[in-house]
C-alpha cells in the first residue's frame, strides 16, 4: 500500500494536536485489522479502522448512479467526528451529523471522475490532506464553530 504525498505528516500533526484518527474504509470488516497494521507499518498513528463494504453486486461504475448508497454513512453517524475528510464527495451524501464538518480533498481528476458532476455539499475544499491540516491547525476554533 503506497501513501499519498503529505498524508503521513498530516496525520502525525493531527495526532500530536490530540486528535483521535479513525480510518473509515469501504473494504470488508474482515480486512480492517490488516489495514490498521499496514497503516501503522507506514508510520501512521491511526487509532482504529472501521470497514464498511460496498455491496458486492453493484456495477463497477456504481458511483455514477443516482441511487448510490453511501457505505460510510452509518459509521460516520455513529462516530460523530468533528471532521470527516474524503476525496469522494459521494461519501458525504445523506450523512445526518450536525457536529461534523465535511472536508473534500480535490486532487486533479479526469473528465470521467465521479466527483466531476456531483453536487453533494461539503464545508471545506483543499487540494491535499496536508494543505487542509496545516490550515485547520491554524484556524481550528473558527473552522469547528
Descriptive notes:
With 145 residues, the chain is α/β, with parallel strands linked by helices. Helix content is 30%, strand content 14%. The chain has a three-stranded parallel beta sheet, with helices on one face. The model has no long low-confidence stretch (mean pLDDT 86).
Offer a concise description of the structure.
It is built from four helices and five strands. With 145 residues, the protein is α/β, with parallel strands linked by helices.
Strand order of the largest sheet: 3-4-5
Estimated share of beta-strand residues: 5-15%
Pick out the low-confidence regions.
none
CATH fold group: Rossmann fold
CATH class: Alpha Beta
Class computed from helices, strands and strand pairing: alpha/beta
Radius of gyration: 15 Å
**N- to C-terminal separation?**
35 Å
Structurally, the number of domains stands at 1
SSE arrangement, N to C = HEHEHEEEH
Number of strands: 5
Q: What does the overall shape look like?
A: globular
Going by CATH, the architecture would be 3-Layer(aba) Sandwich
Helix proportion range: 25-40%
Number of helices in the DSSP assignment: 4
Q: Which whole number gives the mean pLDDT?
A: 86
The profile of the biggest β sheet is: 3 strands, parallel
CATH superfamily annotation: HAD superfamily/HAD-like
What is the topological layout?
Layout: H1 7-16, E1 22-25, H2 32-41, E2 48-51, H3 73-79, E3 83-86, E4 101-105, E5 124-126, H4 129-144
Parallel strand pairs: 1-2, 3-4, 4-5
Amino acid at each position: 500500500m503506497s501513501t499519498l504525498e503529505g498524508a503521513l505528516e498530516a496525520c502525525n500533526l493531527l495526532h500530536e494536536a490530540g486528535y483521535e484518527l479513525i480510518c473509515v474504509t469501504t473494504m470488508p470488516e474482515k480486512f480492517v485489522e490488516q489495514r490498521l497494521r499496514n497503516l501503522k507499518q507506514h508510520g501512521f498513528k491511526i487509532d482504529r479502522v472501521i470497514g464498511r463494504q460496498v455491496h458486492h453486486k453493484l456495477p463497477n461504475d456504481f458511483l455514477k448512479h443516482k441511487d448510490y448508497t453511501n457505505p460510510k454513512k452509518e459509521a460516520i453517524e455513529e462516530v460523530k467526528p468533528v471532521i470527516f475528510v474524503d476525496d469522494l464527495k459521494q461519501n458525504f451524501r445523506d450523512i445526518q451529523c450536525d457536529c461534523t464538518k465535511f472536508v473534500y480533498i480535490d486532487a486533479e481528476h479526469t473528465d470521467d471522475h465521479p466527483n466531476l458532476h456531483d453536487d453533494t455539499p461539503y464545508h471545506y475544499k483543499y487540494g491535499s490532506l496536508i494543505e487542509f491540516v496545516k490550515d485547520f491547525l491554524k484556524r481550528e476554533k473558527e473552522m469547528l464553530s
